[in-house]
Specification:
alpha/beta; 169 residues; 7-stranded mixed sheet; Rossmann fold; 22% helix; 26% strand
């Protein structure tokens, strides 16, 4: 199941405002699985930082490239942030116990293509592409819950000003 993607041009100062918009529509009772793809430096960790800081303004969010997994937890939220860039093989994902996360925990996965077949299915699939001082964020809902989140965002006036067409550079 997948819906047409939404595309936005996100500047470096837009990550926390985007996170706040996501917070308003985030399904806290079930959480979401979010795949974040894009080349090195595309903004995957910046996306996570903006999202986590929407719940906890002082959160220290760094890429868990060397430790692979970082948990961010507080009042009303629990995010598990993983970076699979340094995996030697997809089977190493099993050691992270990502399929056994309790309800309400959201999983944010950088480099999900390195763990295919060993990850829970995505609710949201985000692809980031660097362009002239900004990022193109293309997001697809891949579950009923992910589609509901994107549907709730598409008419947001702030995001409408950042919307891009299919031919965005």
């Amino acid at each position: 199941m997948s819906a047409p993607p939404a595309r936005w041009r996100i500047s470096p100062r837009d990550w926390v405002p985007l996170g706040r918009r996501l917070r308003a529509v985030w399904p806290r009772e079930t959480g979401l699985v979010v795949y974040l793809e894009g080349p090195l430096g595309a903004g995957k960790t910046s996306f996570v930082r903006g999202l986590v800081r929407a719940w906890d303004r002082g959160a220290d969010v760094t890429s868990p490239t060397f430790i692979l997994r970082e948990d961010h937890e507080g009042e009303g939220f629990h995010f598990v942030h993983v970076d699979l860039y340094r995996l030697r093989g997809p089977a190493e994902v099993e050691d992270l116990a990502l399929r056994e996360l309790p309800a309400g925990v959201s999983l944010l996965v950088e480099w999900p293509e390195r763990g295919r077949g060993h990850l829970p299915c995505a609710d949201l699939h985000c692809v980031l592409e660097p362009v002239e001082g900004a990022r193109i964020l293309e997001a697809r809902g891949e579950s009923p819950q992910g589609i509901r989140v994107l549907d709730a965002l598409v008419d947001d006036p702030w995001l409408l000003r950042r919307a891009t067409g299919e031919g965005a550079d």
